[in-house]
């Protein structure tokens, strides 16, 4: 093959790959609205990990509301990397979006990126998690994670009789999610002097796979653990698997967690998980889009827009419908 | 000028010397036509910023690969160097300089350990650097407990984000280090020795060159530059975490191979490595600008790798 042909093959292959990728993106990452005001607003959505079921459901809510309002969404996923999310936020600014909804990967590391968005005069709302510098965000729209964590832990404390060993399994301590959850847990523990937190396990990527081994080790080391708090659904499911590997019967340890994707609902019905906070993520997505749209159309919005939540237990789960949970 | 004349005039020039710039030009034009936001000053600044750390790491890796070795620990090195720098200026002292020096020292040390394992103790580079990568990642997780280390001094942020002639400092650092790398590889005795050792270690040894010293130096240099990458990565966002640099090894290797450096060693060009970096940065930026979801971006990453491998295969076929 001549040099010219080799160059042509390389150029065509790469360009074709990019073109295919770009074509794929037109249907998947962006959604054009079909109705609404004269101007079609373009809103960037920056997830730190779109694979988390909470954000998958939230995106459904964002998309349905965007379609209703004639808004175009540009969705990015940082795959759990603050550096990637920083780049993506800057790229959204480059694209001239009208506003951004972001779930920051880290409360500290994303501050400079938020400030660069602010410097471009683009409103940026945190959602689900937020950053440590509230002045760098236009507002927060999402669940009150601290209150939810208090309620979830309180249900565990009540169930185990107000005293006993408790294990915490959380995401990274500096993520906005965990900072707020810890604040809520602290409030619950303040009312329960008999509770002893024997260990705190950190699962950096909040995944089920990374949860099983350290929790199995913790339950082996401390067989008296009566309750476990899990930062999210995947961690809770990892805890269930760890208990199964140790042949601990369902219900022998009270598991309180966050989010209610179908697997968690099934686990609640089987009494493998005893309590889970439903973020009502689809509704949350609707509200987030509405809030940002209001901001763009000149309606005053509050700095904090809390979304509703519901504590689902293994006793109440059978009485609830999908609508209740979404 | 007809096609035959062009073919004649290109004969003897390595295919990558004109293929890469041409592919890059095609991409730039294609992306410019596809997105109105691509050909903007701000976007080109972003491309340069986003490719800076990759360029710095790829410069170091070029020395290693030309030498006939590999370094799979560069991403982990970027992460742990940034973390040590952060701890250095928050826990060890309150001095930015101390933090930066500790971060650079960590990169250098990790490179030297790779050099000792590979060049002195003759552990294959693939195995040695994979091992040190896992160790560094584990240590990084231990030091950070899985979270980010933040609250770093604003003055540290200037190291990467200060503006000079409308371009951020980290881009200037990348340009400076790339130029130094080019001079070192193409215009010094050390560079000649790197080529000689990578081309034929026995012949180099018989010519009075110590392959052990040259390989050690190349791996240590790569470690130091990864340390620079870690410090700048941290400076940019004023925080560091164990997941920083997780794609750096992959992309730096792809950039070097795209630049025409043979994995077997003995040949390579620093200038073309930088073109490889630019190509990857433009692909990443382009996909982001076009709104490609993460899954499709993975597809493109795979495509870049396949093209890198294809380039090597085509060259080998041509030589045969």
Q: In a few lines, what is going on in this structure?
A:
Chain A is α/β, with parallel strands linked by helices and 326 residues long. Chain A has helices at 3-28, 53-69, 82-94, 111-119, 145-159, 176-190, 209-221, 233-245, 262-269, 281-296, 322-325; strands spanning 30-31, 42-47, 72-77, 99-103, 124-126, 139-143, 163-170, 194-202, 225-230, 254-258, 275-278, 304-307, 310-313. The model of chain A is unreliable at 24-36 (pLDDT under 50).
Task: Kindly name the structural category of chain B.
Answer: mainly alpha
Helix % of chain B is over 70%
Task: Give the biggest sheet of chain B.
Answer: 2 strands, antiparallel
Radius of gyration of chain B: 20 Å
- Succession of helices and strands of chain A: HEEHEHEHEEHEHEHEHEHEHEEH
Question: In what range is the share of β-strand residues of chain B?
Answer: under 5%
Low-confidence stretches of chain B: none
Secondary-structure element order of chain B, N to C: HHHHHHHEEHHHHHHH
Terminal residue distance of chain B: 29 Å
What spatial order of strands do you see in the largest sheet of chain B?
1-2
Helix content of chain A: 40-55%
Distance between the termini of chain A: 59 Å
Total of helices of chain A: 11
Please tell me how large the radius of gyration of chain A is: 22 Å
Oligomer designation:
heterodimer
What is the residue-mean pLDDT of chain B, rounded to a whole number? 88
Number of strands of chain B: 2
Mean pLDDT of chain A: 87
Give me the number of helical elements of chain B: 14
**Given the C-alpha coordinates, what overall shape of chain B results?**
globular
Low-confidence stretches of chain A are: 24-36
